[in-house]
Every structure is written in C-alpha cells, then in structure tokens.
Amino acid sequence: MAATLLPTLSPPVSRAAAAFLLRRAPLKPSHYLHPPPTLRRLLSSSSYPATPSIALCPLSTMPSTTAARAVPARRDLLMLGIETSCDDTAAAVVRGDGEILSQVVSSQVDLLARYGGVAPKMAEEAHALVIDQVVQKALYDAKLSESDLSAVAVTIGPGLSLCLRVGVHKARQVAKAFGLPIVGVHHMEAHALVSRLVNKDLDFPFLALLISGGHNLLVLARGLGQYIQLGTTIDDAIGEAYDKSARWLGLDIRKGGGPALEELALEGDPNAVKFKVPMRQYKDCNFSYAGLKTQVRLAIESKNLCTEDVPISSALEEDRQSRANIAASFQRVAVLHLEERCQRAVEWALKMESSIKYFVVSGGVASNKYVRTRLNQVAENNGLQLVSPPPSLCTDNGVMIAWTGIEHFVVGRFEDPPADDEPDDMQAYSRCLLTGESQTAFTIFTNYFPIFFA
Ligand code: KG4
Ligand code: ZN
Asked: CA-to-CA distance for 232 and 56, rounded, in angstroms?
C-alpha cells in the first residue's frame, strides 16, 4: 500500500472536499487510483497558481474506508455554474484547470428594450422559462451528464431575489438528484476571480475594479474571500448611467444600453459637451454617477432633441451628430471619473501591499474598448499589468460562477447535497440567498480608510 500515491487536496480545509468526493459513488474510471504520468506531473508542478496547491499524499494518511478510490485531481473537477442574478440566464461547465467546456447565455434583451430596465417579476418568469434548457445545453455542449459533475456552483447574491431563487432552485434540484455538493457564489467576487482563469499567473494580492449595472467597486483582493473595499458608488453605478443615457438618446438598446452608447460615441466629439467630472473635491476612491446622468438629460433637453419620439435610426444628420456628441462626451467624463479614482486606488493599494503586480478590470462595463484602453494606461503609468477578461467573460456568464465555485470548492468551502426530503418549494429557496453580511462569501471590510491616507 505504501507505494501508492493518492492525489488529494491539501489540508486542512480542502480535506472536506476530498472527504466528500471520496464518499460519492460511483466515480468515473478516470477518477480511480494511479493518476497517469501526465496528471502526476501536473499535480507536482509549480506552474499552477491556484490556492491552495494540490499535493500528493500517501494513502496511509487517508481514512481506510476511502483508501480504495482516489479523489479527482483538481484538473479533473467538473463544475457546473449557474447565474440568474439579473437579466441573463447563464450556465457553463468548467474544468478544475480552467478549461471552459461549455458556456450558454440566454439574455432577456426584448424585455429590457420593452420596459427600459429589468422588471423583477417578468425577469423571474423569463429565467424560469429557459433555465432547464440553458443548463441542459451547457451539459450537452460539454458532452457530459449531471452524474459526471463534481459539484454545482450558483450565484446566491447580490441580485434580484426573485431571479436568484430560480438559479438556486435549479442548482439544488440537480444537486439533490445527483448527490452533488453546492457552492454558493457571490456575483461580484465571481467577476473578480474569473480573471484568474484568464491569466494563470494572476495571484493574490491584486487590485480590482468591478464595474457593472449595479456596482462600482474598487477592492484590494488579498486572498480568496479576503477583499478590502477601497471605494464604491455613493449612488448609481457606471453601467446604470450608460443604460439610462442610451435610452434617453433614443438608441436601440436590444443589444444593451452600454454597447449601443459605445458605438454611437465613435461618431461624436468627446469634447463637444462640457460635462463636469464627479466628486473631484473628495480625495477618496468612491464614485458617483447620478449627477452625470442628470447632466446628460439636461444636455438632451437643452438641445431640444426629440429623442423619445425619434429613434436614432430615423434621426436627421444634424440631430444624430448632436446625440453622438453627447454620447462621446458622456463616455469621456464617465471613464475619466474611473481613471481618477483608480489612480488613487492604485496608490492606496501599493501602500498596503507593495507586491501588487496586476490591476483587474471586470464586470459588464469592462467589455467597453474605450474603458479598457484608458484603464490600461492607468495600469501602465503605475507599472502594473492590466488583466481584463474577454467581453464574453466580463458580462454576466456562467463560467465565472463555475470558476469561483472551483476556487472555493478546492479549499473546502461548499455545502453538502440537499437532503432527499428537502421540499421542492420555491419559497424555501429564499433562505439560500445572500441576504445578510453573515452569509457573505465575499468578506468586504467596508469603508476601509487607513489612518495614513487620511
Ligand atoms: O456585469 P453585467 O453583465 O451585469 C450586472 O452585474 O449588472 O453588467 C451589465 C452592465 C450594463 O449596464 C451594460 O449596459 C454594461 O454592463 N455594458 C457596457 C458594455 N457592455 C455591457 N457598458 C458600456 N460599454 C459596453 N460595451
Ligand atoms: Zn454582473
């Protein structure tokens, strides 16, 4: 027995994951003892940056009942990720080494265009309508069935609780039927951590700017689940400002307000309208976009543009140019606000952690080319490397949930499968959602202002 090596997840916490997987039966043939030479090399190589490292440990150190079967190596973990926090129903299967086996997103674009925003009850119904198909397609594309999975990860917040419940319900259904552990994932943490899938060299600590429809967060990521919030928005997030401005400008928002505005801005003069940069008098890292939104509305009104009655596709040349100028000027100032706060955040973060090498920019708005270019400049000016996932991983997706699930799973942060007698009652799933600080997997120390920066 002594000569046999068993790949396992390094102690102490990851023992939980190991123990769980060993209890499950049956495992696929590839999961049995004697990892092939390539797998052994991977397990013992130092090239993989994930936390914690995966170690080989002698069988004799494992409980005797588990000695007959091996825990899958990290590389062999198969995580299903489910995301329904807002208006995208998404699912994906990701392998432990970061290979994306499938990615499916169903967007509620028509609903968004019709109602000008997310209507929770309708969004919930739209999620409920497609969730089974989305998950089925993710498994089909990955050429897997539920029984092949190692665990299921699902967004538990923040987001619209009616919508979150649909994803949690589906995740628990699958987990219950196939005896799979569940990992509850914080949506914003997932936006940040997916950058570690994209760039395997990206290790903690790093600085992250997370920009989406509902959040503007600047965090110093010190370790998995350890985030110091350097700044947040005091009112609206930048994505909300893009979406509202796009609607007020009469743009076709079926592909999303942000992308529509970015496209029109290419035709405009970014210095045509003198918008005021928010919060310059506050020497902190917080954001504000409500005032800029109002400035856009006033600019539209002052130019007497009939944006409500005349969609951009029917606008006359001069009218279209005025709208493009407003779009470009808005974008310049909205992003300048990001640049200024990020510059200060880099300085703060480097004082706290001088070893920081990476600046992560993620979330839906990070798919904007102008945003990426300008923030790359901030990174370069400070000797940092920008890591911004490709657009499909910046906007809401199942991959980021599956990947964050893997990150937590391997260190033992997961829930056992639901009990066989768990009622299949949608109301009951509310208790699984992220509602209070006590349930957060994303430990943020809010309003952290180190004394020496005051
Ligand atoms: O992360 P995300 O997909 O969903 C939330 O968590 O909110 O972000 C959605 C936001 C929306 O406000 C959308 O308009 C914005 O990201 N967005 C963009 C672009 N693509 C998406 N904003 C500006 N430019 C884009 N290209
Ligand atoms: Zn998001």
From this structure: 42
